[in-house]
Design goal:
With 461 residues, the protein is α/β, with parallel strands linked by helices. The protein contains 16 helices and 20 strands. It folds into 3 domains: 177 residues, FAD/NAD(P)-binding domain (3-Layer(bba) Sandwich); 134 residues, Polyamine Oxidase, Chain A, domain 2; 105 residues. α2 crosses α15. The longest helix is centred in the C-terminal third of the chain and has 19 residues.
Length: 461
């Protein structure tokens, strides 16, 4: 291909990283810019009181092939682990721990034993959940009618009451969709359950980041992009996109960095906009008009994370889900954070956290410290050395009914202007996997516009 083709990627999250690498692989001259001083977008780490903390617990599944391949290219897949077999410890105050564990049987029978033995549902509720699961499997993937129905409404029609939804369905819906089942789109929920739990027996095995997100994404991405020839300009804010005779220009501002004083604009023949949807709406409205404004209708759903450091070990589990408690999921992140010897750091992840977003740190502490003591008796004698709160006000788009019709594909009406992000029409909810897939799709569209994509090159030959 011609070395003259220039591609600008706006946004250094997973979507932007994937798009930049794909474009560089074809020989394009690629520049990636981000307003932050780091790469990774919504998946990042920070230091507080001598501890290395992640903003949230971004788990993935074995079936997240695009994300895992990206980590392999970054050389950091070794810093992650995947369960040999799906197993979710479930804790309920006053009850022995339960374990939702798959068997080595074909899908969907691999989950039958776990459901039959699940103690937090009655026998009748377990039978009803099995019938609802079979009905879920009969839904037609990709049917647009599913996006007009609420998952909670559908579950109620299939005999699932509030107790069953809270004790079973929300264990998956909340972390995967960042919404409780009562509010989520049936289309997205059906995709999650079918893809992650009901298609292949090992698809839902959970993957964890053993190191911090900075060590897993930010630092190796910088090295990999540099080796690929991608110019990275951090601390640069894109403010306006407009057409030029030669393609597109993105104007903005930033402070000087490793490439010297920051320019006030970048020209390119293709621009991949890989920023959050609200930011994309503001940036692209002058060019795309109503289509850009419509992105705001995707809304936002928050995530709150509590970082609780004890002066002694209180929990023996690597992670656990909670039922009958405000604690949704809790993770032992002691090793990754570099906590002092003898201390234990538990991260509590709260998805769909609209109520918690409005609570003060003191109010959250008053609510969640007693809840953790109920789940972990040894915490009753332990001293809390640190209690920190991180909030992501717009962690994901809001996956309610009607969301599917609002999610755009990568192509736009402006030649060479392409969209990427977990909020675009990947079919996946707003996850690490969705972000990476969107980056690959955006790169393909951008390069096709230039006549230089791998597919276009193959046709030329």
């Amino acid at each position: 291909m011609s070395a003259g083709h220039r591609v600008l990627v706006v946004g250094g999250g997973l979507a932007g990283i994937a798009a930049a690498l794909d474009c560089a692989d074809t020989g394009a001259r690629v520049t990636l810019v981000d307003v932050r001083r780091r790469l990774g977008g919504a998946a990042y780490s920070f230091e507080r009181d001598g501890l290395a903390l992640d903003n949230g617990q971004h788990v993935f599944l074995r079936c997240c092939h695009a994300y895992r391949r990206l980590l392999a290219r970054l050389g950091s897949e070794r810093l992650t682990s995947v369960q040999p077999r799906l197993a979710i410890p479930v804790l309920k105050p006053g009850c022995p721990p339960a374990l939702l564990r798959r068997a080595s049987l074909p899908a969907p029978f691999h989950l039958a034993g776990a459901l039959a033995r699940y103690p937090h549902l009655t026998h009748a509720e377990r039978a009803g959940a099995a019938r609802a699961t079979l009905a879920l499997m009969r839904l037609r993937p990709g049917d647009p009618a599913l996006d007009r129905v609420g998952f909670g409404e559908w579950l109620a029609r299939h005999g699932q009451g509030p107790r069953a939804i809270g004790a079973l369905w929300d264990l998956i819906a909340l972390p995967a969709l960042n919404l409780p089942a009562a509010q989520a789109s049936l289309a997205l929920a059906a995709f999650v359950f079918r893809t992650g739990l009901l298609s292949q027996p090992d698809a839902g095995d959970i993957g964890f980041h053993e190191a911090t997100l900075a060590q897993t994404i930010d630092e190796p991405a910088r090295r990999t992009l540099s080796r690929a020839g991608v110019r990275v300009q951090l601390g640069w804010r894109a403010e306006r996109v407009h057409r030029t005779d030669g393609g597109l220009e993105v104007q903005g501002r930033g402070s000087s960095g490793e490439h010297g004083e920051a320019p006030d604009g970048f020209s390119a023949e293709a621009v991949v906009v890989a920023v959050p949807h609200t930011r994309a709406a503001a940036l692209l409205e002058p060019l795309l008009g109503e289509r850009a404004r419509a992105l705001r209708a995707l809304g936002a759903s928050p995530i709150v994370n509590l970082h609780v450091v004890y002066d002694r070990p209180v929990c023996e589990l690597a992670f656990a889900a909670g039922v009958g408690t405000p604690v949704q999921y809790v993770f032992d992140r002691t090793g990754a954070a570099g906590a002092p010897a003898g201390w234990q750091y538990l991260a509590v992840s709260l998805s769909g956290a609209e109520q918690e977003m409005g609570m003060s740190a003191d109010a959250l502490r008053e609510r969640y410290q007693p809840a953790l003591r109920e789940l972990f008796p040894r915490a009753r004698e332990a001293r809390v050395e640190r209690f920190l709160v991180t909030r992501e006000h717009a962690a994901t788009f809001r996956g309610v009914p009607g969301t599917g019709a609002l999610r755009p594909g990568p192509a736009t009406a402006v030649p060479g202007l392409v969209l990427a992000g977990a909020w675009t029409a990947t079919g996946w909810p707003a996850t690490l996997e969705s972000a990476v897939r969107s980056g690959h799709a955006a790169a393909e569209v951008a390069l096709q516009a230039l006549g230089t994509s791998p597919r276009a090159q193959a046709l030329a030959r």
